[in-house]
UniProtKB/TrEMBL annotation:
Database matches in PANTHER family: 2-DEOXYGLUCOSE-6-PHOSPHATE PHOSPHATASE 2 (PTHR18901), PSEUDOURIDINE-5'-PHOSPHATASE (PTHR18901:SF38)
Gene3D superfamilies xref list: HAD superfamily/HAD-like, Putative phosphatase, domain 2
Membrane-crossing residue ranges in chain numbering: none
CC cofactor: Mg(2+)
Gene Ontology molecular functions: metal ion binding; phosphatase activity
Protein name: 1073_t:CDS:1
InterPro entries: HAD-like_sf, HAD-SF_hydro_IA, HAD_2, HAD_sf, PGP-like_dom2
Record has Ribosomal protein as a keyword: no
Keyword Kinase appears in the UniProt entry: no
Swiss-Prot/TrEMBL keywords: Hydrolase, Magnesium, Metal-binding
Pfam families found in the cross-reference section: HAD_2
Length: 226
């Protein structure tokens, strides 16, 4: 394997524990229409940009809302809860380690810029270590995951290294496919419920249950000292 020199991190469910917030909000909305937010629906919508996700949910549940109405209500509820999201297990340790060894890092999230700012507001100790952030509504991100746009734009922001030297960390199958479509290596860190619905590695170079289990040396990165 080509030595990894740059790292790209998804955010929701990977760096920040926001997926329960997403699930709770969508479940509350769907319940008004007698629908359930199943793990099958969730796994297929994870990693999509907000407009694509809203359209997907409406088409697959038949709820009587427009995409604009769903996005508006969802975002209002998110604003109230996102500031309370905390880092996922192992996230702070890994990012600190890579930062200490001067590995360029960028966040690549399908979230819009304003949503990212709300989520990051109480987590500056984590996000302050990154060299840059790419969001789903940034210029250049024409297509959402599984298209590679998000990761290719993120790559440009950290010096535009050869894509095969980039390692992406993702929790969603759509994100894994996007990373591979970009020609990058990818570590998949799925929720157990998502892993059960999508058995196997789904094309990822490594599959781990938590960032706590990541072995940097496996990808030619500086090993943990303990």
């Amino acid at each position: 394997m080509t030595k990894i020199t740059h790292c790209i991190f998804d955010m929701d469910g990977l760096l920040l524990d926001t997926e329960q917030i997403y699930s709770d909000v969508i479940s509350e909305i769907l319940e008004r229409y007698g629908k359930k937010y199943t793990w099958e629906l969730k796994s297929r919508s994870m990693g999509l940009r907000q407009d694509d996700s809203a359209t997907f949910l409406i088409e697959n549940t038949g709820i009587d809302m427009t995409a604009e109405e769903l996005i508006r209500e969802r975002n209002e509820k998110h604003i109230q809860r996102f500031p309370f999201a905390r880092p996922m297990p192992g996230a702070m340790r890994l990012v600190k380690h890579l930062k200490a060894h001067n590995i360029p890092m960028v966040v690549a999230t399908s979230s819009h810029r304003n949503s990212f700012m709300i989520k990051a507001s109480n987590n500056q100790d984590l996000f302050g270590m990154f060299d840059d952030v790419t969001c789903g509504n940034d210029p250049g991100v024409k297509n959402g995951k599984p298209a590679p746009d998000l990761f290719l734009v993120a790559c440009e922001k950290i010096g535009n290294p050869p894509v095969e030297q980039c390692l992406v960390f993702e929790d969603a199958p759509n994100g894994v496919r996007a990373a591979k479509n970009a020609g990058m290596h990818v570590v998949w860190v799925p929720d157990p419920n998502v892993a059960a619905l999508h058995p196997g590695d789904n094309g990822a170079d490594d599959v781990i249950s938590s960032l706590e289990n990541f072995d940097p040396a496996k990808f030619g990165l500086p090993p943990f000292s303990n």
